[in-house]
Amino acid sequence: MYIKEELKNGIRVVMERIPYVNSVSIGVFINNGSSKEDKHLNGVSHFIEHMLFKGTKNRTAKEIAESIDNIGGQMNAFTGTEYTCFYIKVLDNHLPIAIETLGDMIFNARFDEEDIQREKGVIFEEIKMYLDSPEDLVYDLLNEMMFEDTPLALPILGSYESVKSLNRETILEYFNKHYIPENMVISIVGNFDVEDTISLLTQYFEKDKINKNDIGFVDNNLPIFRQKLSFRQKDTEQLNFCLGMEGIKRGAEDLYPLLVMNNIFGGSMSSRLFQRIREEKGLVYSVYSHPTSFKNTGTFTIYAGLGFGQIINVASLINEIIKDLKANLISKEELRKSKEQLKGNYILGMESMFSRMMDIGKSELLLGRIIPPEEVLNKIEKVQMEDIERVILKVFDNHKYNIAYIGNIPDNEKTDEKLKEIFFS
Question: Is 49 among the catalytic positions?
Answer without folding.
Answer: yes
